[in-house]
Amino acid sequence: MGDLGAAALAEVLRNNKTLLAVEADGNDIGVAGWNLFGTAVKRNGVLQHFGFPWQDYDYSGNSLHEDQRQWFQRILLDIQHSLHANRAQHPHADAALYFPHMLPSTGPKPSYLVGLVQVFGGVGSWEGGFVSVFG
């Protein structure tokens, strides 16, 4: 997916108020992509979980100079701070992640896996990796 795909996903996250969790690790996303995610999560205000990018951190972190690595770490820490603030604002929102059977039986249901075609429609080719979006 790389930074181009991350830019598309960040645009979705920036304005979406129903997604609760995203896992995007293992997609060769660099510092620029994670920086876009950080801005999007801060603006989103609802997202409860964004998995730590262990594989992407190894992918990008190994080739960075120390000051760039510290910047990357700061971005990841800022994402976690934003998620913490979101959870404080919506303390029961993450219950849908763990107890989906307790959602109301009427009204629209959140989609638990949004297809890549929907999320990345029109963005170049996508190879490997996995993105799951829950909400």
Q: What this model shows, in words?
A:
The protein has 135 residues and is mainly alpha-helical. It has one domain. It is 51% helix and 6% strand. The chain is built from six helices and three strands, in the order H-E-H-E-H-H-H-H-E. Strands 2-1-3 form a three-stranded mixed β-sheet. Helix 2 (31-44) packs parallel to helix 4 (66-89). Mean pLDDT is 75; it is low at 107-135.
Shape: globular
Termini separation comes to: 21 Å
- List the uncertain runs: 107-135
Report strand order across the widest sheet: 2-1-3
Question: What percent of residues adopt helix (DSSP H or I)?
Answer: 40-55%
- Strand proportion, as a percent range, falls in 5-15%
Order of helices and strands: HEHEHHHHE
Estimated radius of gyration: 15 Å
The tally of helices reads: 6
DSSP E strands, number:
3
The chain-level structural class is mainly alpha
**Mean residue pLDDT:** 75
Question: Biggest sheet, in brief?
Answer: 3 strands, mixed
Number of domains: 1
List the helices and strands and how they pair.
Blueprint: H1 2-15, E1 21-23, H2 31-44, E2 49-50, H3 54-61, H4 66-89, H5 95-98, H6 116-120, E3 132-134
Parallel strand pairs: 1-2
Antiparallel strand pairs: 1-3
Question: What descriptors fit this protein?
Answer:
single chain; 135 residues; mainly alpha; 6 helices; disordered C terminus
